[in-house]
Design goal:
Shape: globular
Structural class: mainly beta
Radius of gyration: 15 Å
Strand content: 35-45%
Helix content: under 10%
Largest sheet: 6 strands, antiparallel
Strand order of the largest sheet: 1-11-10-7-3-4
Length: 175
């Protein structure tokens, strides 16, 4: 686990993975961001941002959504403009889920998967999901606002189950 104590303003979460072999179902990984209200930061998420959605105020946007992993480098990118996020929100949890098409897949089944968090040209965190190879989803970062400044705790925590169940529980302390 690592912490960054400087204030974070705008961050990109970038996801990469190799495509499935020819003839096999496509590997589809998705970035999910859950935003929590300041008056209930451990309660249910106020809203989720994932494929085909964005935050109501446009501060969290999925810039690039890959359903196959085809391409060079990072195939899926989400931008979080934390400095523009309303003071009504004090916590954002970011996770990655594997879409399950048919048989259950884990991070160990998807070659070259990894996540990187960057602010500008600075890499804040990078991981290859090795420690959660048997999981179907994982949280990768938690952003919290204290005294108006956003901080980051980057910690990959695995989860087993379907993407909807993960999205419903990903920000809970006991999950």
């Amino acid at each position: 686990m690592s912490s960054v104590s400087k204030g974070i303003r705008k961050v990109q979460v970038m996801l990469r993975w190799d495509p499935s072999p020819i003839g096999a179902p496509a590997h589809d990984l998705d970035i999910i961001a859950a935003t929590y209200l300041a008056d209930n930061p451990q309660g249910p998420a106020a809203y989720l941002v994932h494929f085909d959605s964005r935050s109501p105020d446009g501060t969290i946007i999925l810039n690039r959504d890959s359903r196959t992993g085809q391409g060079f480098g990072f195939d899926e990118v989400m931008t979080l403009e934390l400095d523009r996020l309303s003071a009504a929100y004090s916590r954002v949890v970011v996770g990655v889920a594997i879409q399950q098409a048919g048989e259950e897949m884990t991070f160990g089944d998807i070659p070259n998967s990894g996540v990187r968090l960057v602010e500008g040209h600075t890499t804040l965190f990078e991981d290859d999901f090795t420690d959660v190879h048997g999981s179907t989803a994982a949280t990768v970062a938690e952003f919290t606002r204290e005294s108006g400044t956003w901080g980051l705790v980057a910690d990959v925590r695995g989860f087993g189950g379907d993407p909807d169940a993960f999205a419903a529980t990903m920000g809970r302390i006991d999950s």
